[in-house]
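Researcher: We're teaching a course module on how sequence relates to structure. For the next exercise, students receive a sequence and then see the predicted structure as tokens, so they can try to spot secondary structure elements on their own. Here is the exercise chain.
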Amino acid sequence: MDDTDAAPHWTPDDFRRYGHAAVEWAARYLETLEDRPVTSDVEPGWVRAQLPASPPDAPEDFAAVLADLDRVVTPALTHWQHPGWFAYFPTGASGPSVLADLISSTLGVQGMLWSTSPAVTELETHVLDWMAELLGLPDRFRSTGAGGGVIQDAASSATLCALIAARWRAAGDGPFDRLRVYASDQAHSSVEKAVRVAGLHPTQLRRIDVDDAYAARPDHLAELMAADAADGLVPALVVANLGTTSSTAIDPVAPMADVAAEHGAWLHVDGAHAGAHLLLPELRWIGEGLDRADSFCMNPHKRLLTNFDCDCFWVADRRPLVAALSVLPEYLRNAATESGAVIDYRDWQIPLGRRFRALKLWFVIRSYGAEGLRRHVRHQTALAQDLAARIAAHPRLELSAPHPLDLVCFHHVDGDEASEALLARLNATGRVFLTHTRLDGRFVLRASVGTQATEARHVDALWALIDALA
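Model: And here is the predicted structure for the students to work with:
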């Protein structure tokens, strides 16, 4: 038998030639990004209408594939890396990170076990210890002790893993009907989703009241937990927000830790977006109380120039997490695992398989250095503070919430209808894209500053639009 019927695989020379073309396309995209509208105006179904009804039978030339990126794909994109992107949350991407993903895909390794690629596991462990040092996290989150870090795809998965570990610590294999979870109504929707996925009923999630700054009230948490305990229920998990999605409210972690400890509940701190600000010594106050937390997460893919997906998740004690998630079939048994001398990250996450995500975080840290990352976060935060000052001085606008970091929430003094109209007019320009939320029932515009490409002149341009259209 010979290889005449083998598929037409690319040779290394093909890969080199087409790879150069793909990188050139990517560089040209970045060069022209500012000239594009931030959002797409295509109608539903437009993309599929541009595509053939059936797949090609014969191989197509790669140049045609790249051409269709311009013809079909980019006209229908919302450009998350655009300098006029002020929506949702900051988005991370940088040259080192993108190239690391290319190399990770080239290697095609599977890091479910230490033995399936030792470098995947050990580099991840080391980089998570680096990140703990950069953020000034407590020693209990380092791999040198009972805890350690792992990279999840997103903070939603980190919250789910925290709940599963807390569930195990509180009830083992069950039943789980007496368990209770606590989070404010400003917490990310992933908390409620985690409750559902983990097999709890939505009514087992208790909502903590918030104060005037939209931060959770420890006194109300204490009331809820005491009442549940008195009823024979088991407080299992408390979720504190290190920056809420709607307004970047900072929950008081330290007093919430006191309340959680009274009932033996797991305290998870969600710093998905705002946690990156711990890089800055002057903002370390937002993490007061982290030394009492059982777990903490933050997303380099939001703020630290690392493209999606990359969530750093640390636990102070890995044993409940591993015990809850470890399933070892015969076909995964190996000498390294049996020795107990290695970490198998399959036991720290929901799926078995895992990508080499640590590579891109390693590339970014080495390419920027700690000081370069601090400069990026500090500069973007300063741009947001400048925008907030301009809004505060405007006669037709008001700030809607405190703005300690890089998110500015504001509204029109004439009410919701005027605020909604202002948002629509801003986004209709195609030059910027903002989103909204509701705080105390009020329609609020959100301006999130943070893409790599956003400079002072882009924030100036945003302000000029706001001033003109308000």
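Model: If you want an answer key for the exercise: The radius of gyration is 24 Å. Residues 1-35+40-75 form a domain with the dopa decarboxylase, N-terminal domain fold (CATH 1.20.1340.10).
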